[in-house]
Amino acid sequence: MTGAVLSTHGLVARYGDFQALYGIDFQIGQGEAVALIGANGAGKSTFLRAVMGLLPVASDMVRMGGQPIGGTPADRMVQRGVAIVPEGRRLFTGMSVQDNLRVAVDQADRLGRRGGWSLSRLHRLFPILNEKARTPVQSLSGGQQQMVSIGRALLCQPTVLLCDEISLGLAPKVIREIYAALPEIRAQGTSVVLVEQDVGLAQSASDRLYCLLEGRVTLTGPSGSVTRDQISQAYFGGSHAVV
Ligand SMILES: Nc1ncnc2c1ncn2[C@@H]1O[C@H](COP(=O)(O)OP(=O)(O)OP(=O)(O)O)[C@@H](O)[C@H]1O
C-alpha cells in the first residue's frame, strides 16, 4: 500500500513499568478499513490510545501523512483529523442526543475542522438519532448509544476514525445496522481502524487486518485471504506472519 494516511513505526507503550506494546508497525490508507484483532489483553485498545495521544509515545512513532505526530494531546489529534469511538462510549449522561452531538459540532468549529458530516447527514445515516434527538442518552438502548458515540466522532470530521469494540454487548441485528454504516463513512474518504473481538465480523468489514498477541503483531494481511488457521495461530502463539 502506498501513501499511508496514518502509520506507526516501532510503536511502544507502557503503563508505568508494564510494557503493553512492543514495536508496532502499522499503516492505513485513505478510505481503507483495517481491523485489529487479538485476544483480551493483546494490546488493541492500548494501540488506539497510544495513537490518539492518550498515552505518552515518541513523536516519530506515529505519523500522519508522513509527519511525526506521536504524543500529540488528544484534542490536538482531533484537530489533525483523528477521532475515537472509545470503549464504553463515554457519552455525556444527563444530556440529550442532540446536545451530545452539538458538543462535537462546536468542537469541530473551534478546531477549524471542516468536512462532509452534518447533523442532517448523520440523521440520514442513523435516523433514530433524529427521532430521539431530545431523549437523554442514558435512556437509549446500547445500540442507540453507540450510534451517538459514532456520530459524535464523525461530526469532528475525521480523516481517520478509531473504533474500539463498537459491537461489544450489542444484539446481532444492531451490530449489522451499525456496521452497515461503514461503507458510507469510508465513501467520505475516512479511514477506519476497527478493534473488534468478533473475528468473522472484523474480516468481513475490513480490507486488511492485524492480529496482536501480547503487544506484538503476529499476523498481517488482506482480510479476505487470511485463513482461520492462520488467525488462530496468530491469536495464541507463533511467529509473525505476513500474508
Ligand atoms: N490502565 C492500565 N494500567 C495498567 N495496565 C493496563 C492498563 N490498561 C491496560 N493494561 C494492560 O495492558 C495490556 C493490554 O491491554 P488492552 O486493554 O490494550 O488489551 P486489549 O487487546 O484491548 O484487550 P480487551 O479486548 O480486553 O480490551 C493488558 O495486559 C492490560 O492488562
Record the SSE blueprint.
Elements (H helix, E strand, L loop, with lengths): L5 E10 L2 E11 L4 E5 L6 H9 L9 E3 L2 E2 L5 H7 L1 E4 L11 H15 L7 H7 L2 H4 L10 H13 L5 E5 L7 H8 L2 H6 L3 E5 L3 H7 L2 E6 L2 E7 L5 H9 L4 E2 L1
Parallel strand pairs: 3-8, 3-9, 6-7, 7-8, 10-11
Antiparallel strand pairs: 1-2, 1-4, 4-5, 9-10
Helix pairs in contact: 3-6
The site of adenosine-5'-triphosphate has 11 residues, from strand 2 and helix 1.
Question: Would you write up a description of this structure?
Answer:
- The protein is built from ten helices and eleven strands.
- It is an alpha/beta fold.
- The protein has one domain: P-loop containing nucleotide triphosphate hydrolases (Rossmann fold).
- The strands form two sheets. The chain has a seven-stranded mixed sheet with strand order 6-7-8-3-9-10-11, sandwiched between helices.
- Helix 3 packs parallel to helix 6.
- The longest helix has 15 residues, at 97-111.
- The protein is globular.
- The protein starts with 5 loop residues before the first strand and ends with a strand.
- The mean pLDDT is 92.
- Residues 15, 18, 20, 38, 40-46 line the site of adenosine-5'-triphosphate.
- The site of adenosine-5'-triphosphate has 11 residues, from strand 2 and helix 1.
